[in-house]
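Practice problem: predict the structure.
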Amino acid sequence: MKKLKWIVLALMITQSVLRAATATPTPEEYWDQTSFKFADLKAKISSTACYKSQATFIGCVAAIDTLFAMAGISNVLISEDRMKDYGELKKDFGDLKWVTPIEREDLPPVELVQAYRKMKRDDYQSLNSLYKNSKVNFDEIIKFAEDEVSPRVKSMAMASGYAFNAYLNATKDPHTRIMPSRQWNDLFNENSNGDLIGVGAVIRKINKQFIIFTTLENGPAFRAGLKSGDIILQVGNEDVNKLEINELIKKLRGPEGSEVKILILRGNSVLERTILREKIVQPNVESKIIQRAIGEKTIGYIKVRDFIPKVCDKVKEKIDQFMEAKSDQKIPEALILDLRGNLGGLLNEAVCMTGIFVGEGVIAKTRSLQADIQTAKISQEKQKTLLPVVTLINGRSASASEIVAGALQDWQRSYLVGDRSYGKGTGQGISGDPNFSGIYRFETIQRFYLPSGRTNQIVGILPDFQAYSAPQATEMDKLASREEDEYLNPLPFEGAPYVSLRPEAIRNIKDCVDQTGTAAKTFNENQNASLAPDYQLLYAEDVLACIP
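Answer:
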């Protein structure tokens, strides 16, 4: 088995991103090009195999539930003692019941998400107990699942692959999985710009509610004024309460340049919005010059979306461009590095990028899960700039981006602004799967630690300056799904909690921002504009203005 050279810190989360088909293969086509089939999943799920351990029992249930979900079937397998929190019994498998979730449309988005998380935790604990006191006929259940799912999906290979990953997540750890090798190579191609055609929003279905979690920066949905927490009620003139997520996506798709009208619920208000479908081009590295009207400070801004190959070189190029004097542009006096929404990528790129700002030195330490061996990851970079730096993070800054933000914080090279990061402090090795052609296997092989020795696993990276998406943040503004929210069996936290290395300097800057900063005022004056201000970015500018 040939081992690939990359250590990957990417966070691969399945989300419903509204986009239209492009020349890139569809997810179904990627999976159909591999040798992975339903029979490979079925080989793991039998009345004998599922009782090998508590983990395999949970894994079998998770795999079957995922199969149903891939077919747009919301019914799940639960134990009898959980029936009180569910709706109609659809099929009785003895100790396991196939039931529909209770519709909770009366709850606002935040409470709905919290109730859903509690329900899944309770289900998990109940299944753990059921393993010890039952004998479930998984042969019957997997046959039933095959009959129900196969007519409803385009690709049984893809449905089976996702189900197999649910099995691996339960039996191994949340970040062990398989993926079509071509899909991974296309995703992490160094020239990838993430071009989409659609409305530019990320939606999750929780019970019967379609909740907008995020909108792509400056995308069509963002410009139409859609916000996190909006609940979609109608697309066109059609109510969506009976739709599955894939059906909703189909209705939101359409030709580039066409419009789609949607009805949303925001708080107690029902609003109509018209969104123009268009091609959304998102370069992996973006930059611009910010000229503060107050304070007259020129700031260079760099946003990094993923740690794909050559991203470090692209950031170097952006800094070089900033430093080249132009007649119509001032040279920046400070920099903002934006890692919000950056789910990670390649460890070597994270080490290189941190080195741009700190020079040569230890950026991270890794510890093997197979042996108690620690290895220092050392930057060989020459320090590229001495300018003051502020780094933006949020709950979707994960893995490699947490290494960069945390190392810059440990080196006291950058102040951090935003919200607590995701909390993934593990690395995965990639290899060609020996059992399937066209498949990469990702296995968690190590933990990583920051230069100070602390870890971000579960606890994330804490910003020096807490700033949500609005100065008077609502509970929805604060809502984020992190490692401990999305997985029931994450690796536990290890180590001491983070202690700020320069509390007095942070306190002085905070006092200055409170007294002279303009972020809150600018946001409040313009929050109802067609493009609402980026409060976290404005706050980062205030911090830079207050650095002595």
